[in-house]
Amino acid sequence: MTTISTSSMPTSPANQAGGFLQTALKPVPLWRRKLNRMLGHRGLVLGAAILAVIVLAALFAPLLAPHDPFEQNVSQRLIPPIWNALGSWDHVLGTDKLGRDYLSRLIYGARVSLIIGCAAALISGVIGTTLGVLAGYFGGRVDALISYIITTRLSMPVVLVALAMASLVGGSLKVVIILLGLLLWDRFAVVTRSATQQLRDAEFIAAAKAIGASTPYILVREILPNIMSALIVVITLEMAHAILLEATLSFLGLGVQPPTPSWGLMVSEGKSYMFFKPWVIVIPGVALAVLVLAINLVGDGLRDVNAPDGRN
After folding, report:
1. Which of the listed residues 15, 111, 138, 144 has the most CB atoms within 10 Å of its CB?
2. Confidence bin at 29 (pLDDT 50/70/90)
3. Is the full-model pTM beyond 0.85?
4. Helices 158-169 + 228-251 axis angle, to 10
5. Can you say whether the dihedral through the CA atoms of 176, 177, 179, 180 is positive or negative?
6. Which residues make Cβ contacts (< 8 Å) with residue 45, sequence separation at least 6?
């Protein structure tokens, strides 16, 4: 008896079309769709590229900085940048009033801004997310109490409170981080409260309760991962907010103290020469604006990518 192998039989056009149709209808993984949306969002790509350059410059500051940012040389004070006729390649962006290399201080200043932005956003995110999730999940008196706390916080101007506290405690890097972390949690609380209220009656939450899952398990393992996309957007916005507030405090002499390189402090130190040597405030001001713009572009892009309609 002769056995006919099906593998040697020619494939009909109908089978080929069916195979192509199955391949075309194969669902695209979620991570691939999100990646395609990110790469197709021009603002997100531009912001991420600028932010990556600043982060890399901050991480490799000892290798990139041409001079010691703390080294003073009064004989070379206020040398203009290289595009000026009196500029020098030894100091590409010039020097400040104490003869310190401006490019080196600018690179090291990126470290200060990023550390303050990330640390303040982390502290405020933990506080605000905890309060928001508890208020949105339990409701009732817990929601009323936390809503009252949020309203009280929103009634206080952040800049005025930060100035008052910094003047009482004294300015330093640690004080600025703690102070901003304790003042910028309200947006986290509002967003997570609203998102948790939408999820607490969902079917997967009811299923978790039915199998006997504890409340901490539901909050950490079920609700928190589902509001993470909204939290990421808020984190980027609060990072930019914290960086601007640090620059404001440092400009007023209540933030990071000299000789620590800070972009806000560099603007403050150069304000006496702004009409005669405008580059001493333009350079750190532009750097600050570019960093905040990049963070906002990333935040707006992530919001668009995670939008339900998937707009780019």
Report:
1. 111
2. confident
3. no
4. 60
5. positive
6. 38, 39, 301
